[in-house]
Amino acid sequence: MIKVVGLGPGHSDYIIPMATQAISEASVIIGYHYYFQFIQHLVRPDALCIGKELSEEEKRAEIAIQHALEGEQVVVIGSGDASIYAMASIVYQKVAEQKLDIPVETVPGISAFITAGSKLGAVLGHDFCCISLSDLMTPWTTIEKRIHAAAMGDFVTGLYNPKSKKRYWQLQTLKNIYLQYRSATTPVAICKQLGRVEEEIKITTLGDLDVNEVDMFCVVLIGNSQTFRYKDHLITPRGYLNRKPETGVEIQQASFNEILNNIPPNTLAKDTLWAAIRCIHTSGDFEYINYLETSKQAIATWHDYLKNGGTIVTDVTMVAAGVTKAYTTKYGNQVICLLNDKESLQLAEKEGLTRTQAGIKLAAKKYPDALFVIGNAPTALIEIADQIQAGILSPTGVVGAPVGFINVIESKERLKTISHIPYALITEKRGGSNFAAAIINAAFTLEEAKL
After folding, report:
1. How far does Cα 198 stand from its chain's mean position?
2. How far apart are CA 226 and CA 186, in angstroms?
């Protein structure tokens, strides 16, 4: 049997009981000769200890297999945890390649980055990764890809094999890459000879990191964008103090904040920007910041109108359903849709109109001062625009968001030529009832916009 045993960072206090037992029962112990000094008190007198050099990992695995096949109780030792950048990988690989029926067991140890994390307090409080900068067996191109991924992903990063006499340039390269993604003030810890009498920990920043202070006895930990220093501790918040939104209002506000933090650069006025955010929220598409067009202060004008109980006329029931009832109830607004009104049906049949066009034509007579909101039918928007152009109708405003392929562009172009009536429209062939309602809801809530 082969047991691959991690000794922790070096001090006997860091060797776990399972490792102590495995070593004390072993008849053959194999490892880097430097590590035997940490376990002499555990080795039984008749055990065979075989020390090898750092570059002889494969040879160690072969010797372990040879003695295991002879019936010995074999232990392969390594620092830290045996399965992290250590001997477990090569031992298991060799046994698997030779298809040997040898029981192999990994006895865990305390890894250097875990030790560093505890020494520093709570730097590993959120997602983290480890990268070895040794390119002896891994191509640098592969390592470099992983560096970019870790830096871009905002992982707290532990660096193994950060620097040696022959590999003196990799750490500086990593620093340069991380500075493309992280602030120069990002906390960094250089942890040297952890768990040993020579232990030394230095806390610095990414910008001030002096790679000449690092050697092969060091583990380097780089914080993420949230990591901060308090006294001699590094703390990476887990998020316990940032409770996720739970209520509908909280979720909606969190969504608006997310949109605002990621919105493309723009020069929109505050009221128009708020309407654009509501449209983005409705669609999940940031491009809608480019598709919303309003006349000056249209949303702000409608905000005052709606707060004073103004009437809304829509072309279809879907728009009426999309206007938040909590707002209309609070301010006493009527939302009128005559699409299915008996008189509208008669008018449509008599004059050869679409039902939506007839409903809007009838509503224009009954509610000439209303805010007209078109979310479906271009014929309805054409009817309103033509009446305004003829001086028959003078509404508080017009929202034009019909969607489709026939007469859609023409209806919106009509609306854009009317300069004395506040308007908002979704450009091109895009639109729909949900966007029309979103613009009205933006007008209702303009005071809530935190822009």
Report:
1. 40
2. 8
Number of H helices, E strands in the chain: 16, 19
* 10 φψ region: left (φ > 0), alpha (ψ -120 to 50), beta (else): left
Give the mean pLDDT of 19-44: 96
Helix (H, G, I), strand (E, B) or coil at 138: coil
Q: Which of 41, 281, 303, 420 is catalytic?
A: 281
Q: 235-283, pLDDT tens digit by residue?
A: 999 975 666 666 767 777 788 888 888 888 888 999 999 999 999 999 9
Our answer to whether residue 126 is catalytic in this structure is: no
Give the integer Cα–Cα distance in Å for 377 and 399: 12
Global confidence as pTM: 0.62
Backbone φ and ψ of 201, nearest 5°? -125, 125
- Cα–Cα distance for residue pair 393/399, rounded to 1 Å: 15
pLDDT digits (tens, 9 = 90+) for 413-430: 999 999 899 999 999 999
Q: Which two tokens stand for residue 131?
A: 């990268």
CA triple 113-140-199, angle to 5 deg: 25
Residue 358, both tokens: 């007839």
